[in-house]
Predict the 3D structure of the following.
Amino acid sequence: MKNTKFIFIFLFVSLVFLLPILFALSEDDRQKEILHEGTVVDIINGDVLVLDNSEEIDIAGPHILTKGKNYRPEMAKNIRDLLLNQKIRYEIILEQNKKYQGRYPLHELVVVYLNDKINVNEKLLREGMAYFDYGYYPGVEAYKKLNEEAIRNKKGVWGTTDPPQPIYAREKSWLRYHYVDCKKLKGVRQKDRKYYYYRPKYIWAYHTFDFDCRYCALIEERAKAEGKEIK
Ligand SMILES: [Zn+2]
């Protein structure tokens, strides 16, 4: 009887000590559980991956343009070379919110892993092969930092003879967008301006009151009517 009791206590104590170890061991497996899998069959809108399971996912952090003055073909080629026909794993960090359709992204925002090691989101920004995607989503500050470092260290497109230049400036106080060469921007102090390489693709809830400067918008319209390129 005494022996049985001892064995019971022994088993109980062992379990109490072993359980945390077992959980620690399965941390890797649990990590894998939140990761989805797919093969990239196409890339649309610059950085939206179309998968073989017909899911469309948007890489959070980097943004790649498909047209405009700051379009860089090497960015488009780089992401295709890196991901097309590759098997990837991805974690959804911001789900599509039907309630905010039109304001929030149409695709799930994800972090993409290649060969289980390479964080594609960080890689594209670190190597200067993408613009920083303005917005409010998990990890946004870290992505912004990677982009700033790439610009400072002249990585990728930032090191070319014709590095991208900001096209828009936004007045912080008025939430008004201008072309960088707009006359009306001259009176706005540098520290009250924010520069953009492209017009942010999403109008976020925060940006409800943003508007375009009518002065430079009119100039643009006039130039277009005259067949001139002003961007
Ligand atoms: Zn303006």
About this structure: Helices lie at 2-25, 27-33, 73-83, 120-126, 140-152, 214-225.
